[in-house]
Amino acid sequence: MSGKLSRRGGAVDPFIVMDVMAAAAEKEAAGDTVIHLEVGQPSTPAPKAALAAAHAALDSDKIGYVAALGIPPLRERIARYYRETYGVDVSADRVIVTTGSSGGFPLAFLASFDAGDRIALAAPGYPAYRNILTALNLEAVDLPTSAADRFQPTVAALEKAGRIDGLIVASPSNPTGTMVGHGEMKALAEWCDRKGVRLISDEIYHGIVYEGDTVSAVEVSDSAIVVNSFSKYFSMTGWRIGWLLVPQDLVRPIERLTQNFFISVPTLSQHAALAAFDGKDELDGHVRRYRANRDLLLSGLPAVGLDRFAPAEGAFYLYCDVAHLTNDSREFCRQMLREAGVATTPGVDFDRARGAGTLRISFAGSTAEMEEAVRRLRAWRRL
Ligand SMILES: Cc1ncc(COP(=O)(O)O)c(C=O)c1O
């Protein structure tokens, strides 16, 4: 006897990087050391100010349920961040605190789309977009991108995509690190407005930038939904806290959804996140380290045959074309882990059609780990 299984649940793909992490853990359990270039998270804890605020909240607050949209001081502080960072005045009423950006996606999708709607997104891209859309009976429409368009959606690509109801843009992108400029974001936003398409802008890697400036969709659009998080720049992955910035008419629908789905977002994390904005010096220090790591890999990896990268303007990833070395990136990554003790993520996680010829290297770890990775890969390629 077995119970009913949903078709939509069965249609959701695994997140392959999790499989790589499991294989790496197995190797470590067997006594080997592994350099982790697969994980997409900072290797540092939350900023000191956030930790102090969390301790104080534990001592003074009962950590009960709070308002579904988030505690007012945090919503105000996030609105201030938009004034300070992008010079845009946004009302705190439009800020919705979420359980990581991952908690924001289903809310944004459910508030914007009906079952069967078609949402365009760049390939390669972050796999959870597609997988969450699939779970919600929404159709993910790949926009195959290339180095020529810097792996970002363009109006020309959208014109060829057939009827669409939504567009997800991620800048800086995971896995490529490439960004959308101000003019490009404006063109995409205007096209979406003309066509009645909802623009969803994933800005989770804002703050982690090496070349050029990030543009927030809120600078160029009144109807876009902005998704952001404390996970990356703020170095708070496990606190599971993020936010949405939404047009006024979506606030109440999302409030109703979040009341029913989650009641509220973890209260302790909200207190910590509020104080995290005071950790700027510490957090900017992490970004300087990421830059040093990126430069070290960009100069060290060509010697081992890894020399075809997307321009890593932001985030902490190198997306690497390995088609001259393998036609099976999954096996290539397995072998690299087994023989060199270096874990990376095969491109099939990000681009189902073309990812057999690519892999993603995360440089979020320490600089010493990057040096060791290059040393190991050099020894490996001389095998
Ligand atoms: C592009 C992108 N969006 C969203 C997320 C989800 O992050 P979180 O739920 O921790 O905010 C990730 C995590 O790696 C990501 O790379």
Could you explain how this protein is built, in words?
The chain has 13 helices and 12 strands. The chain is α/β, with parallel strands linked by helices and 383 residues long. The protein has 2 domains: 7-45 and 281-381, Type I PLP-dependent aspartate aminotransferase-like (Major domain) (Aspartate Aminotransferase, domain 2); 49-278, Aspartate Aminotransferase, domain 2. The strands form 3 sheets. Strands 2-8-7-6-5-3-4 form a 7-stranded mixed β-sheet, with helices on both faces. It has a 3-stranded antiparallel β-sheet with strand order 9-12-11. The mean pLDDT is 95. The structure holds pyridoxal-5'-phosphate.
Q: How would a textbook summarize the main sheet? A: 7 strands, mixed
Give the N-to-C terminal Cα separation: 52 Å
Main β-sheet, spatial strand arrangement: 2-8-7-6-5-3-4
Low-confidence stretches: none
**Hetero ligands:** pyridoxal-5'-phosphate
The CATH architecture of the largest domain: 3-Layer(aba) Sandwich
Tell me the number of structural domains: 2
The Cα radius of gyration reads 21 Å
Structural class: alpha/beta
Compute the average pLDDT. 95
Q: Count of DSSP helices? A: 13
